[in-house]
Amino acid sequence: xxxxxxxxxxxxxxxxxxxxxxxxxxxxxxxxxxxxxxxxxxxxxxxxxxxxxxxxxxxxxxxxxxxxxxxxxxxxxxxxxxxxxxxxxxxxxxxxxxxxxxxxxxxxxxxxxxxxxxxxxxxxxxxxxxxxxxxxxxxxxxxxxxxxxxxxxxxxxxxxxxxxxx
Length: 166
Prior knowledge:
The protein is an alpha+beta fold and about 170 residues long. Helices cover about 40% and strands about 15% of the residues. A four-stranded mixed beta sheet has the order 2-1-3-4, with helices on both faces. The longest helix has 17 residues, at about 50-70.
């Protein structure tokens, strides 16, 4: 079962073809046992509690489906946190290994690092789509004044955004 409906796939395919310019990599950090299987996560429509395993598998499947509709503009790169290479890459990227699944966005327009922890579903899915388009196009939805102020920053800043279900 696909996570993205046919109607939404058609919408995303059209939007991506019009708005994605440069490639964007999404690096997914999970435990290998959660992302090596091609088995899709199934749900009979009932509500279920999302635990680490389901969150990792759903995230892998969702990102793979996004990559499929992006005409190669969104590339999915997976890192296994159960291997020394995966851990080393996560450490270099600044990924917290205790918060999986974790995503790291990579694009030529990105200055600094952009991470997302958890399953990008619900309202977060739409935000992720907008983020991917912004990264691909290099166009930030910030006022001119905010962009000018950011140009004068001379040190690193960590910005944490917390999302809670409503």
